[in-house]
Amino acid sequence: MAKSVDDLARSEGTGPIDGTADLVAREEQVFGDNPLEVRESDHYTHEYVGGFVDKWDELIDWKKRYESEGSFFIDQLKARGVRSVLDVATGTGFHSVRLLEEGFEAVSADGSPQMLAKAFSNGLTYGGHILRVVHADWRWLNRDVHGEYDAIICLGNSFTHLFSERDRRKALAEFYAMLKHDGVLIIDQRNYDSILDTGFSSKHTYYYAGDDVSAEPDYIDDGLARFKYTFPDKSEFYLNMYPLRKNYMRRLMREVGFQRIDTYGDFQETYKESEPDFFIHVAEKNYRTEEQLSAGYSSAVSTARDYYNSEDADNFYFHVWGGNDIHVGLYQSPDEDIDSASRRTVERMAAKVRITPETRVLDIGAGYGGAARHLARTYGCKVACLNLSEVENARNIEFNRAEGLDELIEVKDGSFEDIPYEDNAFDIVWSQDAILHSGDRERVLEEVTRVLKGGGSFVFTDPMAADGARTSDLGPILDRLHLDTMGSPGFYRRELARLGLQTVDFEDLSEYLPVHYGRVLEVLESREQELSDRIGEDYRNRMKTGLRNWVEAGNAGNLAWGIFHAQS
């Protein structure tokens, strides 16, 4: 199954695919006449030449890596009862040795013979461990490695060596197949989103912690991240990698079959998207029921859930925002009643789709269920309300029962990132000003597409960043919502098209956004004394500041809002 370490040490070539023989002997990386054109998955085997491998531990610095990483990976594995681990990106053996020290059964695989030879040597040096090394290519992992494992780890930004989507999907499928039924896959990656969008920065703490060693991009575009590694002796080496975006990587893992994926930033569960140097994805193969999926909220959704479940928030939306349709309204006059303006939005959205008593509607982020009651009352259709706040859901159920609509309206606790309904279940998916609360909007749209029948309609509104708006212009709003980004009209058009949904119409109603938030602010300020016993002072003050930020950003043209209508 595996080459012996002697074979690996004597190997004349580094390529597991084509066996090229002379690169290591020359101790020189070869990228050809134009290194920026080298974008093949196999080329990494020629980049880890002997001289680079010998210096790799200077870059990693095992002691500092041990201290900065702490017990994160060990804790993740032990919490799941893991015993056997396949380390598919062994490198020079840091994590393989760590696993053995912690009592796990570990097999160490890598595509670079030079790395495996170094890892074997390090295993003996650090604790006298004999690593079970396997020379393997991820795309044919089941051919090169035998057995099933409780966990597979792929660390050190290694997955970015795969340049084609076909290779990435094939590798993930191989990982999935080698895991036991309840296995876990842990993959890390650089924060390429931040590098691509705002430029490179690094705390030089968690991953590449060696003193007087630098690892910085030499070139970056959407298809290539070329990093230069400079060592104290002035030697320089390069790696060409594919700049994986975080949510793209999460989507690939889901499409392979992983249901639950938690993403950490520099080992932290909560973080701002631009802050971490690295993301760590923890993906579970274990099949989850609808109830289990609903119980496992993402960090962004959990934040929104806690907020809307709070007594202050419930009293604010019920007593100030209208208490029925708690969404952005369409105003005929600046001083119009909030509830009336908000109901007008519902009517405007409903006019864009055909609804009959046979129509099945799903409202994601349903709030108090005002839209559902209007649709059920007006058209006689059945509506499923999916919402994350138990407090709002309780009011929804109470209102439905009072109007005699409870037989037409179902209320379910849950997240729109994992919609607890079967495929092709609904004629219409409806949402008002809720998707912005997700940290993975691509996932929400994928779930919407999944549960939507062929020919069905997706009609929704969402407070968005205007196309071209800078993140810095939205800072106060994002901080208030505990978010790092907002969607935009361009984002939704692109993602809907990617998922095969045709954008029938986007009615741009952005001018109503600052009007609405200004009206809510007026009502709050005018009734503040009367509401002081129901809504805490700190909440009221934060809300007034937040509402003013919405008004200012809307009037400055940095925000967008309107009604999207798309068809499957």
From TrEMBL:
Is Transport set as a keyword in this record? no
Report whether Methyltransferase shows up as a keyword of the record.
yes
Disordered: annotated span: 1-21
Listed GO cellular component terms?
A: cytosol
Q: In which pathway does it act?
A: Amine and polyamine biosynthesis; betaine biosynthesis via glycine pathway; betaine from glycine: step 3/3
Instruction: Return one Gene Ontology term, BP aspect.
Output: regulation of gluconeogenesis
Q: Which GO terms describe its molecular function?
A: dimethylglycine N-methyltransferase activity; glycine binding; glycine N-methyltransferase activity; identical protein binding; S-adenosyl-L-methionine binding
The record's annotation in PROSITE patterns points to: SAM_GNMT (PS51600)
- Matching Gene3D superfamilies: Glycine N-methyltransferase, chain A, domain 1, Vaccinia Virus protein VP39
Biased region (Basic and acidic residues) positions are 1-10
Classification via InterPro entries: Gly/Sar_N_MeTrfase (IPR014369), Methyltransf_11 (IPR013216), Methyltransf_25 (IPR041698), SAM-dependent_MTases_sf (IPR029063)
The residue ranges crossing the membrane are: none
Q: What keywords does the record list, in alphabetical order?
A: Methyltransferase, S-adenosyl-L-methionine, Transferase
One protein family per Pfam: Methyltransf_11
Q: Which family does it belong to?
A: Belongs to the methyltransferase superfamily.
Q: What is this protein called?
A: Glycine sarcosine N-methyltransferase
